[in-house]
Each structure stands twice: as structure tokens, then as C-alpha cells.
């Protein structure tokens, strides 16, 4: 039996998660020497491999050093694995791009040979290590002063890996995430930088570093960079305005701290999952706005999740075309093929249907308020990891639902669907066409 | 200057609403003899013409007989006007159907001449009067016994008009809607019947009454009927199960009353807006499920709102095709043209974006909880009229937002967009194609 790419991805991820869950459920993985229980271990392993960061138990308080380092490795495998695997599988197969296949960097790196594959993989690993190494160095400068030499260096490495892979796991303890460092420029800027670069996707980083001229970049890279800057700036302005006078979030900070915290809170929903201010204390409008950002997420082929910046951009441009009665969807003087636009809208609608269905089920299984349920669902789907605090109190059914949501959110509903589907059939018989009145 | 069809619709509706608002703000329209205020009158007129049923003031308590009858006329103009205008405008123009134009019954009634137009209009008015007349007669049988002869007959007519046009306005008083009649089979069955027939759309009613054989119906009619039955049955089962033991809704009713109330509560979100049980007392899951039903709404060219049953059906079938790796979207042995499917997904995404944006703004302007805000927004967008009770307490900004949402929900975001857009341009220059990686 020959596995199709989507099936390789799904089975590969599932295997890593299961192995991770078994190891994390060992007593030696827990600080207390008592097993955390298989469901909680499965939750943690899924959250780590899918670089989500939602936690049912506090990482620092619950897990031993062995458990913590295992989680770090799961994050690295998950982040790197997804980046390389999605990139490679489709390049190796060299499939023609259709509505139902993912295009990965065909334009950026064409004519791939086996030598090219090895080179590409090496390039991706090298890039990852450079970013994580630099991040770990700068973070250690601060953490050594807080936690001492060894623990400080260890914390630098762990949080650099967690940030570049958009995982959002932390070792600060008691579910506090990075709140103790809310006004620390060094920690904030390094973490934000790692998140942003990790969320661009390898092909864009490659494009930018080799071409160095915006006008000559691939259309994909241009759209990713434009949307990223737009979402970061808009996110900063909206959160700064909405939370400026909220005494429980930005209100009590210094002027510089306000700017830093609002910037961090615009970066992290896409889709890192760290936080420096108290999320449940944010205003209703700011929480809701954060849900939007989490849903959009990062860019394709990156360590981040969500429906992706480019998908959102195409949907916006599609609406713009309809409104202005244009025949084609055009961006930066390029015409986007209709099946490309169509795929973006299929992904968006599928993602929305999934988020809505899961949150409807959680509304039945959990006793929480609606905003918390929707927030947690989108956070899981977008592999974000921001939380209203209900995750540690989920029922078993709720945990299973969130585990499945993280998994399909990481691989994309489309990939899961393709993995489950039987092989593509070409219809023997074409039925006659007939229209339906819509809208 | 020649107006385009979308502009005629938008300007026509706006004019009727403004005239209605001016009349309703006259002191003589109020029971107390004091004007209700222009903003409240504008809200009521918009709600009536857009057959929504959301109210900032109680219709019976606030408005004089003159005001009430005016509201009934606005409902009739709105319901009938939309049905005939959407049907006619596009038939008269005989436009080729593109992504950007609405198809109305081209298949059902082809080769339309001016004589045909007059005949069609007469047919629509005749059908409406038959349904409303029968409904008014049966409702009067009950209402005469409760309210006396004259008021009973008047109530029969008012509520028949309100139900067939999916308007949801009532004269029971104190925002109670039809709750006093929760266990009354006659009122329930007549109102449900009017809502369902009103929500099918004229072309389907015509099709069914002339052809009388499911297999020979147009594909459009088949899809409308299938989805309508499916949504009614599914809605009934879900609400019955979720609310069965809720003492504040179904729990306190007799076995037959439970069935009647659950049935009613599955019919009314699409998109009538009457209620027989207390909506704010429903469980979180049932409220959320109701939001789904409200969003989907009724069928195209009908008196109901929402994204429409056929739009939802096409989106579901599109996802099914992607999952099963089929090349085409097929329903009942017919292939749906790709631009038809594409339009359905554009409408869905536009509707979602609008609902999300409006509820985000309401989260800023109003002090209500998130579920109530989302519920009220979808209710306004789908011209449903069900309410968590926050509408009478809206801020002025909130009222304006809901007014705009009802208006664009009734005409469809696409129609509004087309009315605002400049004339269709054929691009002089085709840009080269380039793909973007999505999802
Ligand atoms: K994350
Ligand atoms: K209504």
C-alpha cells in the first residue's frame, strides 16, 4: 500500500505524538514522581508537537527536567518537521498544483533533485538553528541574572525554541507565561522577533535573504510580508486603544511598558501563545479582536497556525473584486488563478465550520461562558495557546475535543480530509449542469 | 443617469423605510400621543420593511392603532416588494447570470415578456393573499375567543401578515411575543405553516404547485425542499434534546407541549422571529445552535433572510467534493457550475465577515455579554428578530449599527456592494498570473 503525502503527514505526526504521550506519562517525567495520567500526557504531547501551547497542567510545576526537555524536543520535531515535511513532500512528488494539493515553494526553489532535497533540508535546519541560537543567547543574558547561570542558559534555550516554533510553552510556573517580564525590553523584543520570523515561513525567509529587494520577491513573499506588517500594526493600534485605560492590563504600566505590552499582545495571537498581561482581564472587545487575529494566524509553511495570512489576503481581495465588479483577483499587478482564490475560500469556510462545530460541542460538555469557549477553541485550532484559563478545568470529553482540534488545526482540515479520502476519482460520467439560486 | 438593478433595490427600500420612519415618529402613531423619537421610529421602520422583528419599543404598548397598521403595511411592502422586485428586476433585464448578478427563476419562468411580468406579479400577490387570508382566518378562530370579535380578527390579520412575511412583529404586548400560546396547537401550527411557506421563495411554491412531482422539479426547488426539511427535523431534534429538562423552557410543559414548543423553536430562527418560550433562559448550547439556524436562514427570493438554505447546501457540497476528491460539485445527478459554487462561498464569507465586524463593534459600544451581542447581530443580519433582550437597551450607536445590519442583511451584502460599486469594468490589461500558497 502506497501512502499519499497527506497520509504520511497525518500518520507521522500521530506517531510522534503517541510516543511523546507515552514518555510524558512515565512517572519519571513528573516532578512529583507520580504519572500525570495518559490523557493529560496526550494533551501535552499534542500541544507540544502541534506547537500550540495550551496546557492542562503547568509545565514547570508538573514536569521534571526530563519531562521539560522532552517537551522541548517535541516542539522542535513538530515545528521543524512540519516546515520541512510540508516543503519536501510536495517538492519530491513534484505534483501539479490543483485545488486539492498544497503548493509549496515551487516558484522559490524549482527543479528539485535528490541533492537539492538534502540541501534544502540542511538549509531549513541551519536557518532554524541560527535563529534559535541567537535568540537563546540574548534571552540568557536576562534569564541568567534572574535564575542563575545554568538555569538561566537552559531557560534561554527552552524559550528560544518555544518562541521560534511558535509553541508558547514556558517554564515560568503557575500558568504565568511571561507576565513577570511585561516591561522587560530585552525579553519582549527577542521573543517577538523569534515569533515573527518563525511565522513567516521558510520560503519567505529564503526569498528575503537571497533577493533583498521587495519588488523582485515572489508574489507569495510580497503578500506574506504585507499582511504580516499590516496585521502587526493594526493589532498594536487596536489593542493599545482598547486596553489603554484598563487598570488590570495596560493601565498600570509605564508609557513605554504600555507600548511594549500592546505590541507583544498583537504579535502573540499569531500564533505564539505567550502572554505578558492577564488575558481574562482584557476587555470583551479586545478578547474578541484577539480571536480574529488567532483565526488568521501566521503564514503558510511556517511554524505558526491559523488559516494563514495569505488565505485571509485572498479572501479580502476576492471580496474587493466582487465589490468593485472586477473580473479577476489582482494583487501587486499579478492575476491570481481562480482555483487559487477558490481554495482560499474553501479553507476559510472549512475552518469556520470546524471552529463553530467544536465550540458548539464544548458549549454542551463544559460549564464555561461562551467567550471563553470560543476563545479556547480558536486558540486550539490556530495552535495559538492563549487561554482564558478554562483548559486546566476541561472535562475529559473537552480535552479530547481540544486534542483533536489542535491536531487538525496544525495539519489543516484540508490535509486531514485528504488523508481520509479515498484516491481521487475521475468521474466516469458527467452529469448535466444546472444552476441554483443563492444568497 | 441610469440606475442599475441593485441601486433600484437599495434606493427603493431606503425610501420606503424613511417615509415609514417619518410617519411612525408622528405623535399620532404613539398610544401616548408623544413621539417615539426619530431614531426609534427609524429602527422600527427598518425592522418592519426588512421583515426583521427586532424592536426597541414594544409594538402593542408603544404604537397607536394607526402606528400598528402602518407597521403591518411596511411589513407587507417589505416582504412582497422584495419577493417581486428581486424576481422581476432580474427577469426584465434578462441578464446573463454571472458571479456578480443574481439569478432569479430563469429556469422556472422563462421567455418573459411584459405581459408575462404583469402576470407574474399578479401571481405573486395572489399567492401571498391566499396564504395570508387562510392564516388570518384560522388565527382569528383563536384570537376572537381571547380578545373579542374585532380585536380578534385584527390580530388574526396582523399576525398572519407578520408570519407569512417572516416579520416576527406581534401585538401581544410587553415583548412577550407568542409565549402565552406556547401550548396552543392551532396558533402554533398556523404560524409555523405561514413561516415555512413564506420562507420557501415564490419560485419553489410555483414549482411545487404546478409540477407536483419531486423528481421533475427544478434542481433549485429540490435543494430548497431538501434543506428545509433537513433543517427543520435536525433543528427540532437538537432543541428538543438540549432543552427537554430545562425547567425554564420545555421542562415545565406537557409532553405534547414540549414537542410543539421544540418544533416552533426550530422553525422560527429561519427567519421568523416569533418565540413561544423564553429565549434568554435557553441553555448556552441551544442559543448557539439557534445562531447557526439564524445564520443559514430561509430560501432565496423568499420573505426570509440569512445566507439562504441553497448557499449553505452548496458550501456543504463543496466541502464534500473536496474531502472525497471529486472534481465537480454534484447534487441530485446534476453538476453545479463552478461560478455558482464560488458565489455561494463568497456570500458565506462576506456574511461571516460582516457579522463578526458588527458584533466586534457592538462589543465596544454595548455593555452586554458576548453571547447576547452575537445573538442580536446574527438575528439582525438574518432579519430574524429573536432577541436576548438587549435591543431595547441599545445605545444610539448600537441602534444605528443594528439598523444598518438589518438593511444590508435584507438586501444581501452583495447587493449593497453592487449598488455602491462603479460600473463593471473590463480590464484593459491582463496581468500575468501568479500563485500564492494558502492554508
Ligand atoms: K502556539
Ligand atoms: K423576522
Automatic annotation (TrEMBL), chains A, B:
Annotated TM spans: 6-26, 38-57, 69-93, 123-144, 186-211, 223-242, 288-320, 341-364, 400-421
Sorted UniProt keywords: Cell membrane, Ion transport, Membrane, Potassium, Potassium transport, Transmembrane, Transmembrane helix, Transport
Entry GO MF terms: potassium:chloride symporter activity
InterPro entries according to UniProt: Cat_transpt, TrkH
One GO CC term on file: plasma membrane
A Pfam family assignment: TrkH
Subcellular localization(s) per the UniProt record: Cell membrane
Its membrane topology: Multi-pass membrane protein
Protein name as catalogued: Trk system potassium uptake protein TrkH
